[in-house]
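Before relying on records like the one below, remember that each one covers exactly one chain. Contacts with other chains, cofactors or solvent are not represented anywhere in the record.
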Amino acid sequence: MKNTFKVLFYIKKNALLRNGNAPVMVRITINGERTHLSTQLSVAPECWEAGMGRVAGRGNAAERINSQLARIRYRIESCYNRLFCEEAYVTPLRVKELYLGVDRRRQTLLAFFRQHNEEFGRMVGISRSKTTYYKYRCVYSHLESYVREHYHRADLTFQELDREFLTGFHAYIARDCAHKKNTMWVYLIALKHILMLARSRGYLARDLFADYKLSNEFVRRNYLTIAEINTILGLEFSDRTLRLVRDAFLFSCFTGLSYVDLCSLTSANIQHENKQFWISTTRRKTGSSVQVRLMSVPHVILLKHMPEAADRRIFDLPSNGWCNKCLEKIVLAAGISRPITFHAARHTFATTITLSQGVAIETISKLLGHKNIRTTQIYASITRSKLDSDMERLSRRIDMLCPGRATADMVGK
């Protein structure tokens, strides 16, 4: 498709200078996309000929300014022609930057990534998640090591990046970092976002991920059965931290709250309506509001840990990693051999506590604070007990429609 490139000079009548002159601006338009640039020139508004984009008259002053405008137009057109021959995608901003002497060919990958992370970090807690921030920092760290070990350089310019760089990094995080397939998928998606952002700003000429297949694999979600929950409920621990982690984990099993949301829970989030206690909070990850009614088990746990001060946290938990270390001891004491992390509590809520008991998937999605029901469908896998109960109800309904006598007669024939 042919580019529609246009250069237009105009004056800013609403921003006059102290001497009464109007600044002369230039608008660069490519395929409907625009950017503006100051020419550092000014003229009396009444002397400007808007239709021609120039100063009216033939005096020396008019000819001098028009001559300068002609040179500016020529330089802008030269920048456009150069970019059109060198790059696959030309934007007005790219033309402007080249005109101003900004050489994007010297922009480097790690410096750009580092700046992205710094800007992202400043927005954590406002519109960005700390977990996502840590992910980008981790990808940057791997990328920095990869560039240093394989290119023996401190950084690479965007012009040096090619498909070999991408496949090399993919192999590096798989072989040298020993990451599993889903972790690699998450890291490469993060790198793809960084490169797309760089391409949108004109630093990268082409999409390195075009036709590059990225895939993840289904991971079976670990969750507890009712019998296992009862076993953990009956355990006694002398260690105070183990008791706290056990109680918080079980509380999450019956409410679906994540570790980070559980840590920020205070008595202000507990509401009493119609003789029932409810949790009313907002998910840190998605910003979705969550309201969960407290059943008897989490209510007893709540009364046990409820602080006197309204602004104090109900569960003063250690780090998520340390909680998982404690859970290893707890599930071992319960005779559970498979690995269970704190996040398995949400899986337990989605499967054992709700889905297996006939709660609609739409309701579960709302309780978990998901914005997309497809996320809930991943969490809430069908359990065997749920399958058996559904088939039993279906069997009874079919038997009512097809009485046993008629069925026996058909078998006899």
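The first strand starts at residue 5 and ends at 11.
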